[in-house]
Amino acid sequence: MPQFSCQICPFQCQVDRVNKFGVCKLPNKLLISHYQPHFWEEPMLSGQNGSGAIFFTGCNSNCVFCQNFEISNPEYWSKKVDKFSIDEKKLMQIIIKLIEKKVHNINFVTPTPYSEILIEFLKENKKNITVPIVWNSNAYEKVETLKKLKGLIDIYLPDLKYIDNYTSLRYSKLPDYFKYASSAIQEMFEQVGFPQINEQGIMQKGLIIRHLVLPNHIEESKKILNWIHEAFGSKSYISLMSQYYPTFKSSNFPEINRSLTKEEHEEITDYFLSLDFSDGLIQDPTSSDSKYTPQWE
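Given the sequence above, the corresponding structure tokens read:
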């Protein structure tokens, strides 16, 4: 294997991920925690047959409220590295197995730390993958890395989490999050544009920007919606998510140790509608429930 110095994401740890690990603590090989047809993504992604979700182990973020903490946080997954480790051949077998279940897409969930491996994998195999590829990330990514994905990814599904640096550091330990995420999302848009949806209502290409609304942070959510409107216009496609519920370490942060109130949900919904976006999704408050989170093995 050629010498590797990891500079994939904004942390630019410059470690080999073999003898020394960076912020994400991940080795320089594929780790997959779970895969399944996923029926709780956006309707144009899940459709009737589900999105072919492949959950990569680990993350370059450290969100205190992570709903997938059992597979994202090294406190939990580091003891299962051998169990989760696969090669590119096995990844293709998983993709084929999901396509045989007639999923509408292959959904790479939290793929950022594996970008270099996946770029080479897709260069070799994309021609044999008969459904769109979704890049489902936290948007804390480098434009230079994303440029290498041009033509390999059909649908970008980033979550634009924060606009305030204090918030991004407090809850996710992500310095300068908005600076990097906003640039990353602009690059994603340059590559795939607005959503293209077929006659069956299934998305084939384009950008959907997710935003998870946090309790007691409605004003920050408004600023994020404003930025999206200014950056991409009224045709921007936003998935406004209300699925937050306190989990993992959120009990250490009293201001987010609850779900959204009805008043908060109504306030951000009204604000979203006031911006006159031509389309988009607003998640119902009933989605704030752990039953919509996959059960990890």
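Residues 30-292 form a domain with the TIM Barrel fold (CATH 3.20.20.70). Try to locate this feature in the token string yourself.
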